[in-house]
Amino acid sequence: MSRKLLLIIIITIIVNIFPSNVLAAQDQDIEDNACYTCHKALGWKFGELATNWERSVHAKNGVTCSKCHGGDPNIPLGNVNDLSTTEFREITLSSMYYQENFVGAPKKEKVQELCKLCHSEQYKMYVDSPMGALFLANKGGPSCVYCHGAHENHIPNTKICEDCHNDVQGFNKLNPHSASFEDIPKDFPTKIKGMHSETKYGGDISKLGKYLYAYWLGSVAFITLFVIYALTFFVLKKGGY
């Protein structure tokens, strides 16, 4: 077998296998959900969202991605390992950006609106609390996801209160959703370190399409550099260097 033919075979293998390795799905429990399966397959920061969701209260109660983010999780995928980069990108567009109800990552001022779709009673208490009133007035205060998390949401303990309060002694006796200054005894420690300027989960970051393009561009650049290296090595080897 000639070196030229061997080089062509190696390049062909890399071009066809490299994307499929990146897109290898690791969890088949909800394989029919396009959002979860694709995010899990992409890995990196996209995969982290799926992994975090697995540990969430939402996952335990069957609340999936589209409940908050919209889109169509029922787009047929087939075997994600068999998808080409082009097919994968088209599914991404079809399940998200082509859908009128797609929210993506909501801006921080819109997060509460999503939460109250299911947690209306808690929301009513929150907006009347010092924390909620300050946040909604854009004067600081934590949002829902600051304390509960966005994807790996959970029931927090008073440890999260230490982000803002110097002393959280006795905080476990209060209902954080409905606590008011009137409810707090005069000798209760309420010293505040500082106000929240924004939540841990804020800003419009729904740029998955751009990230996918960057991934594709990076793959092309990697393959191109490999080909240049291989050809250079081949030429030098043939020339006796």
Features:
50% helix, 241 residues, single chain, mainly alpha, 2 domains
Outline the structure in words.
The chain folds into 2 domains: 3-104 and 206-238, no CATH class; 108-183, no CATH class. It has helices at residues 3-22, 34-42, 44-54, 57-60, 66-69, 85-97, 108-115, 120-127, 130-136, 144-148, 208-238. The protein is an all-alpha fold and 241 residues long. Helices cover 50% and strands 0% of the residues.
Structure summarized in a few sentences:
The chain is mostly helical.
Please tally the β strands and state the result: 0
Give the number of domains.
Answer: 2
Determine Rg (CA atoms, Å): 25 Å
Strand percentage: under 5%
- Termini gap: 22 Å
SSE arrangement, N to C: HHHHHHHHHHH
- Which blocks of ≥5 consecutive residues have pLDDT under 50? 11-29, 195-208
Please count the helical segments.
11
Structural class of the secondary elements?
mainly alpha
Helix content: 40-55%
Bulk shape: elongated
Overall mean pLDDT score?
A: 78
Major β-sheet annotation:
none
